[in-house]
Amino acid sequence: MARIVMKFGGTSMAGIERIRHVAGLVRREVEAGNDVAVVVSAMAGETDRLIQFCREAASLYDPREYDVVVASGEQVTSGLLAITLQGMGLNARSYMGWQLPIRASGHASALIDDIEAEVLERVFAEGGIAVIPGFQGIAADGSLATLGRGGSDTSAVALAAAVNADRCDIYTDVDGVYTTDPRIVPKARKLPIVTYEEMLELAGVGAKVLQTRSVALAMRHRIRLQVLSSFEDRPGTLIVGEDQIEDYGMERQVITGIAHDKNEARVTLTGISDRPGAAAAIFGALAGAGVNYDMIVQSVAKAGEKTEITFTVPASALERCSDVLGKSRPEIGYGELIADTDICKVSIVGVGIRSNPDIAARMFATLAERRIDILAIATSEIKVSVLIPEDYTELAVRVLHTAYGLDTEEQE
Amino acid sequence: MARIVMKFGGTSMAGIERIRHVAGLVRREVEAGNDVAVVVSAMAGETDRLIQFCREAASLYDPREYDVVVASGEQVTSGLLAITLQGMGLNARSYMGWQLPIRASGHASALIDDIEAEVLERVFAEGGIAVIPGFQGIAADGSLATLGRGGSDTSAVALAAAVNADRCDIYTDVDGVYTTDPRIVPKARKLPIVTYEEMLELAGVGAKVLQTRSVALAMRHRIRLQVLSSFEDRPGTLIVGEDQIEDYGMERQVITGIAHDKNEARVTLTGISDRPGAAAAIFGALAGAGVNYDMIVQSVAKAGEKTEITFTVPASALERCSDVLGKSRPEIGYGELIADTDICKVSIVGVGIRSNPDIAARMFATLAERRIDILAIATSEIKVSVLIPEDYTELAVRVLHTAYGLDTEEQE
């Protein structure tokens, strides 16, 4: 007997037929003797519909009232799943975020502070099933708070931590985490297991299976996560701590996956005086405006000459970045700001990187063989990212996937 | 300066354009210096959509979970109206039923127990506008509770009572209460003012402008109600106590309105032994099953002979009525149960009835002139109802409307 939090995304909850299917998956875990809490998303499309209403009502809407509107989508699906489970003869009941409560700070992209486990422990003790709307909590002033898009994954992991769950199963419309995007590389393989760190790096560079926050939270609380399909009955991908990998006796590749992210922009500031403090002025201004930056390259200048600084920002933050740097131009002192969005960040991710310097070298050599320009490089313990011209994205991902031995042998 | 509760129905809240119009009506009251609380329904069609989901999820759904699902519709519109009002520069905020709280008993058709006015008084003191979802409250165990269809009228009146409002304005898609259904009698007139008692009798026999419960509650707390159109800018109908009518100096007709209700069924039990206790057995059984009955007629039997009892029930309760009486047949002792739904109840309503016995007599004479059979008669202080064959409904309403001088002189 185990204690399991099951989470179902919007595609899994889209309509009563699918909710009935979800109820069947819940029943299976209950009949296996497990304690089960279920976290649900709104029906696919519903949150977008509600957000659209808010935007039409006022272009600058109050995040607090926005939360009142959008939290309703998960309220509906949690009530409907409870009704469906009851219809199967199971002892189920819904508990809103404010009823448990799930305490959160902020609005529209609130953070979970803590979850009271008392009600849930009582439900488990009585052999019941708790159905909980994802994506929502209650703020200290008693107002509704939502966690931002994709927040239901985070709700599920936080609940799993609160009740000391043995596993948190994230049911979605893909059946696991792949070595790379199967639309680009048909020979991509589903990974049976990855570490939290690898999953974080993969999610951070474009693998959109799980919300990054939820993985970080799972890592902090050592919650065993599983990503699997609601629609196909086969094992998904386990996400665990590095020390737990060996328990599964897996033969691991040094590289776990290849990710790419086209939603980046490259910014170059020219004509910068080579004096101490220029970089601090630039990145201090960006940090102050909440703009994330990455992949900084500074050209080496001869004494007394001007230099250039290049870095990347999310494409969605480019406008804000230009504004901020325009205003700080007197303090920074630069010539031109040149922006380029026709670039892509391609990354190799794997815990093997940290112990093996050859791995990064192999990446650069593989790309050079295909004459793919590397515009910038960034490395972390378990990731190497390169910035390349966007046109070469698919080619780069494909040759790297082969170079690191990730291609599956099955014919697809 | 006055304190006003404004209530907007589903048609008035159907989409952002209409919500913007509603916000304009609210702004007008605020700019006139009034304290304003607004009660809103879900967008037209939304509650039906949510109920349909519940029915599809399980035919016998848990009323508690049903409440979780259907309460979401008003949550959405109250958040959206608050956003829209804020967009106009007004200080508005939504408060869910559980946040005030609005305490209620039961589920799916809960009754309001009381409303905490503290939050609202603070909002008024700060010059704010409170937007409150109608139709919902919180049960003693902390679960969501809804008041049953049309419950938002009741929410509005209960709120008006809780904050001692000077007036409760019910905005809807009709512009007031008419002397009769204008679809049947084009010469029907809008009533500038009616008493609570008249409104109750009119609502009880088919005038669907206001939920009966809300009128009864307004009467109990002496809340001045006004029914008016969200779409046309003209006075509606005031609903007040009888003693307040004179304040308006109205020249009143003895009859206020003619109502009809086709949703009735006539039930006749034949072959009943004329012994004490037969009626008690019948109506005790019905009351026990929650079936409302009305218009009882018992034929006079000769000593030792069998008799008949005829009465009406709502057509929707006919099946339950037949079940209950079938089971109680041994105790009651009757021959046949004959049901007829091709009948209609036509009623004249007016506070003048109680002081003027001629009024009922004129009703019977008017119908007799047109050879309309009267199958049963029921009278109250301010209402006389007759049961007639359904085919004659429109004719009866029209001739009575003329007979009591209710026809308007304007050409329509």
Verbal overview:
The structure is a homodimer of 412-residue chains. The first copy, chain A, is α/β, with parallel strands linked by helices. The first copy, chain A, has a domain at 3-173: Acetylglutamate kinase-like (Carbamate kinase), CATH 3.40.1160. Chain A is 35% helix and 25% strand. Chain A has 14 helices and 20 strands. Chain A has helices at 16-31, 46-57, 63-70, 72-87, 118-125, 151-162, 196-204, 212-221, 242-245, 278-288, 318-327, 329-332, 358-369, 393-403, and strands at residues 3-8, 35-40, 92-94, 102-105, 111-115, 129-133, 136-138, 144-146, 167-172, 193-195, 225-229, 237-240, 257-261, 264-273, 294-298, 306-314, 337-340, 343-349, 376-380, 383-389. In chain A, strands 3-6-2-1-9-11-12-10 form an eight-stranded mixed β-sheet, sandwiched between helices. In chain A, strand 19 (376-380) and strand 20 (383-389) form a beta hairpin. In chain A, helix 1 packs across helix 4 (72-87). The radius of gyration of chain A is 24 Å and the shape is globular. The two termini of chain A are 38 Å apart. The mean pLDDT of chain A is 91. Chains A and B meet through helix 1, helix 2, helix 3 and helix 4 of A and helix 1, helix 2, helix 3 and helix 4 of B.
